[in-house]
Write a structure and sequence with these properties.
Elements (H helix, E strand, L loop, with lengths): L1 E5 L4 H11 L6 E5 L2 E4 L3 H5 L7 E5 L5 H6 L6
Antiparallel strand pairs: 1-4, 2-3, 2-4
């Protein structure tokens, strides 16, 4: 599993983020404090506190292309 910290401040960023992660077949979660939601669920993402940085947990060993796609959201 790999993890990266990102920030999603605007609804347009959330929409872009979800469209990126949906292209990948492996499981991707978002962790904010004690809450964990599916990163491919736009409603799940809007249910957490987006004012703070969030952790993206990628459940795959080879995910360099996804990490490259997520660079735009990194803190």
């Amino acid at each position: 599993m790999k993890s990266v910290q990102i920030s999603l401040q605007m609804a347009s960023q959330v929409k872009t983020f979800v469209s990126i992660v949906q292209k990948y077949s492996y499981e991707i979660d978002i962790r904010s404090d004690r809450y964990v939601v599916d990163a491919k669920s736009i409603l799940g993402i809007f249910s957490i506190d987006l004012s703070k940085p969030i952790n993206v947990e990628i459940h795959a060993t080879e995910c360099d292309d996804l990490l490259q796609d997520l660079k735009q959201f990194e803190i």
